[in-house]
Amino acid sequence: MFVLLKNSALAAAAIVLGAGMAQAENIRLGTEGAYAPFNSVSESGELNGFDIDIGNAICAEMQVTCEWSTHEWGGIIPALNSGKFDVMIASMAITEARMQEVAFSDPYYFNTMRFAALKELGLEDATPETLSGMVLGTQSGGVASKVLKQYFPDNDIKLYPKLGEAFLDMESGRLDLVLESKFALADWMADGVDCCEFVGQDFLLDGTIGAGMALRKDETELRDRVNVALAAIIENGTYDEIRAKYFDFDIRGKPIAVSELFAK
Amino acid sequence: MDWLKLLAIGDTGWGDELLHGLGITLALALTTFPIAILLSFAIHWAKVSKYRVIRVVAHTHTTVFKTLPEILTLLILYYQSQALVNWITGWIVPGSNLSVSPFLAGLIALSLVISAYGSEVVRAALNAIGRGQTEAAKSLGLSPFITFRKVILPQLWRHAIPGFGNLWVILLKDTSLVSIIALSDLLHVATLAINTTREPFFFYLVIGAFYVALVILSTRLQKTLEHRASKGITRMEARDA
Amino acid sequence: MLDLWLNYRDLWLDGVITTASLTVLAIFFGFFLAIPIGVARAKSSGVLGWLALGYVNLFRGMPLLVQLFLVYYGLGQFNSELRAVGLWWIFRDAWYCGLLALVLNTAAYQAEIIRGSLQTIPASVHETNAALNLTRWTAFRRVLLPIAFAKALPAIGNEFILLLKATSLVAIITVFDLMGQARFIFSETLDLRVY
Fold it and tell me: Which of A186, B192, B204, C173 is disulfide-compatible with C70, CB 3.0–4.6 A?
């Protein structure tokens, strides 16, 4: 009985592996799917966004086939590390802490942060002084939550599993301000939402090197191939084409660091 | 009112995605339930086994899964089971990549939790039948297996239906937890729809209605099953048995 | 493992307090809400009975997660209307919303428990009440309710445990109970042992 079980398991595994090796190489890409305009799911159930297009372009450049999967943001690093997919392209900011868990490709853009506030507050800028006593919100597990905890420790901070939920609370007035990617906020506010406006300058978390694609630490070869492909699509203009679809300004320029802005 | 338009089937409305989500919810519940029932019997037998180790394992199972919140069980299982699968498959074929899908993680987590309660349902039902039946079957020379299949099981159903029926309803509702690990069940689809349309009240109300309808249907079905199982049993017998 | 505990000691403590307070308050308020509903279910066959049946079916039929979302985000959509009637301060706060959803939910289950215990009171008790010429209200208050409560206590104890586990879901609407703190610490440390 057990011999039969073991043999059939071996056979099944061999078929799976063999099938994998027979076709062209297949890389599995992972993303969140709730972070427009970078990665989101449309009404028809398709994944689209800047990250998706960049990912597909890189695969085309590396001449491999790619398949996408979505994952909850809070568990996307464990999902990568446990092998559910091979490369994460989800606008994840490269930080020291994350580099302990995963390896990153070269940055493919700089995801600057900015505050969006309720228009009725009439704020002119966003510093710890002007924002004192206000309720701030962002997605949990992101670098924005670190900024809020570090530079606005006296404020009431609310964290949400999905950024979209923070937006709902902005619209209903439970939050006074939300801090996240300038681009994600712009995308949200462009969509017929007129409660809110940008305040203050954009900035980056200290020591952030930009948004990168994450891989398991032992996949050094794959990482090099990804970097080469990224450089190639920047070189040959594919990157700019994709970027122009979503943003009519450069997103690879590095803005000011947060500690300079909110120096205590 | 464009409420109905939001629910339209096809590319412009969310109706088809919601139905698809409903399908996933039902698929998860319908595949988990039989497994949970089987597990319930297994756990119960383990609890009355003559080997102490097995008894301890079974009791630990029940205690653990009744104490932990279901969402915690689900999260731990989802993240850890992948590691376990990798370890096992690493033995058989190194470097292979079997992925534990959210569906599978949900299936395992929910059947473990439901079976913890289910083993109690089995125990209560077997108690209600009493040892007399097993003894009579033994004196007739029937094997344990036949005894169970032909004598105990038919009588068991009548007592087990309310308990298992209740667990089915709990299972239906607990499937909504898998939306947190990104499985496209009914609740998850609703949250996606809300992200785009910004109508949380409407969509949550709609899927709330879906769930209530499912639960009402299930309780109706349960009552029918109870009624049919009790055919021929007079009220006096029903009180004793 | 110990460092996970020590470094975040304050957060864990906050989480325990939140979980405990939510559970106790929800069971308490839920019980008082459940009494009229349970009675209506046990006795009335008119409009009240139907309303009670509807309530119970609604709140036992929907997953708690959906109810939480409905109360927090769903009602949040009506913030301008709620502000106009001066009720927004309740719905503004995630903790109150979580408590409200938990109370509504547990009341439905407790109402069924109370109904069950009321309906299984033997006829002899009712006859005795009539013989003693007690008014319906006195009979209810002094005889039936205490009997029902005593019968219901084990089941309500069970409900308390279930509620304790259910509070873990409020983490999804930003209330930092024990589960919420765990998720937060996990997002910082990425260490699964947090769970």
Answer: B204
